[in-house]
Amino acid sequence: MNGAQAIVKCLEAEGVQELYGYSGAAICPLYDALLSTKIKPVLVRQEQNAAHIASGYARMKGKAGVCVVTSGPGATNLITGIATAFADSIPLVCITGQVVSSMIGSDVFQEADITGAVESFVKYSYLVRDVNDLPRVMKEAFYIAESGRRGPVLIDVPTDVLTAELKKFNPPETVQMRTYKPTVEGNAAQVKKVIKELEKAERPIMCVGGGVALSGAIDEIRAFVRKHQIPVVSTMMGIGAMPTEDNLYFGMVGNNGRPYANRAMNEADLLLVVGARVADRAVNRPDLITENKILVHIDVDPAEIGKNVGPTIPLVGDIKHVFQQIEKEEIHVKEHGAWLKTLMEYRLKMTEKRPKIGKQFVDVKLFLEKLSERMDKDAIFVCDVGQNQIWSTHFFRVSEKGRFMTSGGMGTMGYAIPAAYGASRARPDRQAVALCGDGGFQMSMCELGTIAQYKGGIGIVVLRNNTLGMVMETIRNLYDSRGTMVDLGAEWPDYKKIAEAYGMQYFSLDGASDMEQVLYSFLHAEGTRILEVSVDPQDRV
Amino acid sequence: MKKIYSVLVENRAGVLAKVAGLFSRRNFNIDSLVVGETDARDVSCMTIVSTGDERTIEQIEKQLNKKLDVIKVKTFREEDAIDRELMLVKVKYNKSNRRDIMENCEICHAEIVDMSKSFMLIQICDTTEKVELFLQVLKGISIVEVARTGTVALQKCRENER
Question: Which of B55, B64, B72 to mutate to test the interface with A (most CBs of A within 10 A)?
C-alpha cells in the first residue's frame, strides 16, 4: 500500500463520502487512488471554492469537510477558503500535494511553502515527510478539526510520500496528543456560580454566537431560554440559534445590528455570552460592557475568554455539554416579565426607517420577508457579504427548523454560492438558497460550471445594483461621496445569458413584477436556477 | 509588566517559527527568546521574556497553550525566577587599559576565555541586569563584537512543585 492509498483508507475510516478539489501533478497519485473507492471527488473550478463548498457541507453535516488540491497555486488558491473557515471555526481537513521531498526549498515548479503560509489561520498543519506517519496524521487531523473549537487542519504531502510504500498500515485507534486536550465539560464550580448569578439577575439576557450551531446545541439553548424566559440577542454567526419570530428573540447586536438589540444588551444586569467572541463587529466598546453588568462568558476556547472583554465568570466548555449540565440543576430565576415587556417595546419602537426606494426597484425588506416566508420551513439560507448580508440579518426570518449561514468573521465575498452548494450536497433533501450581490456573484460565478456538471439544485438570488454597495456606503459615511472602485458597470453580465449558458432557469424581479408569482416559480423550479433582483443602488443597510 | 514564559514544546521542525509567528501575528512583544533541548530529546524548552499589560500577558499564555506543539506553559515574574544570560564580548586592548579590564572582569565575575596580542574575548554569565552593567563598564574601551544568548530562566525552587 502506498501513501495515497493509505490516505484514502483513512478517509474511508473517517466516513468521508465526498471531497472537493482540483487535480494537478503533485496530487495525481491521490486522485488515482480515489478511483477504487466510493468516495466521490467533486472537481471545482477554482480551489478557494472547494474550501467554501467543504465549509457549507461541514456546517450541515457537523463533520469536517474535505478538500484535496495540488501544490503551489492549487494550495495558495485554497488560502482564502481556509482563512474563512478558521474565522468561523468550521472544521475542514485540507490535503495539499507538495513537490518531491528532496526538492522542497529549491523553488521548483509549483512549489509553495503552504504550511508556512497558512500558519496563522489553521488550527494545525502537517508537512508529512515519512509515509509511515500518514495513518497517525490523518487520524489526528480529523480529531483536531472536529473537536474543541472546530477549525481547519492542513496536511501537506510531497508526491514521493504519496507514492512511497508503507511498511505496515496500522492506523491508531485513538488519538494520543499530550499537547491537545480540549475542555468539553464545564467546571462544576463555575456552573454553580453561573446559576447563582442567574437566580440573582433581574434583567438577564443571552447573546448567542456561532458556537451554538457548531456544537449542535440549538435544541439545548432553546429549551433553556424558553424554560427560564431568558431573552436572546445574537451575533451574526449566532443567527438561527433562535427562530427570528420567537418572542424571546431580539435581533442581532453590533454596529450593523438592530438598535433595540444593542439597547437590550446594554441595559441587562446579567449577560450570558454563549459561543461568541465578543468581536469588534458585535460589541463596539468591549471594555465598557462589564461596567454595569455581570458578564458570563461560556466558550470552548479558553483563549477567547478575556481576549476582548474581561468576564466576571468564565466558563470553558462545549456549549452542548455545558447546557446539558445546567439543565440538570434546579434553577429558580426571578420573575422578570417587566424586563421582557420593556424589550418588546424597544423592538416595536426602535425599528429604523428604511430609505425611499425608486419605483422601478424591488424593496429588499419586502423581498427578503417574502422569500423567507415562501421558502421551505427547513430550508438552508446562505447569504454572501456586503449589503445583502446585513439586509439578510435584518429582514430574513429564520424559521424553527431553518438554517442561516454566512461568512461572518472573515467576510469573504463569493462565499454564498459554493457554501450553499456544499450545504445542499450534505442535505439534498433540503431546499438551499444562496443570496448574493452582483459583486459576490461574479467572484464565484465560475462554480456554476461545477454545480451544473454535478446536477446541483440550489436557488441563487442576485441582488443587482451594479455597485459594490457596502463599500459605497462606507465611502459615503467616512470619506467623500465620489465612490471610487465601486462601479461594476450597468451592462454586464447578462444574467439571463449566463443562466442559459449553464442550462439553468432564469427569473427576474423588478419594481413592476408580481413578486409572489416569480418567487413561487423560482423556488419550485427544477435544478439550479438564478433569480436576478433589481435593487436600488441608493438603498442603504 | 515583564513576564517570563517557560514553554515546553515538541522538539519538531518548524515549532520555533510557529511560536515566534504567534507573537508577531498577535502583536505581542518579545524581549528575548531562547530555545534549547531539555533532558528529554523530544522536548525543547523555550524561555520567552515579554512585556505587556495584564490582558496581553494572559492572552500570551492562553494563545501559547492553544498551539498544538506546546506541551506546557509556565508563567512567572522575574522575582520568582532564577534567570541567567551569557554574553561573549570581544574587546581591543592595549598596555594602558589591560590591567583595568582584568580588574573589571574580576569585580563582575567575568572570565577572559581567549586572547591574542591585541584582542580579548570575555565571557560573563549572570542576570540580564548584571550583564548590562558589565557592558556599560566596558563601553569606555573599544568593543569589537558582542553576542548575547538572551535570558534563560526557571522558576525558583518550591517544595510543592510537581
Answer: B55
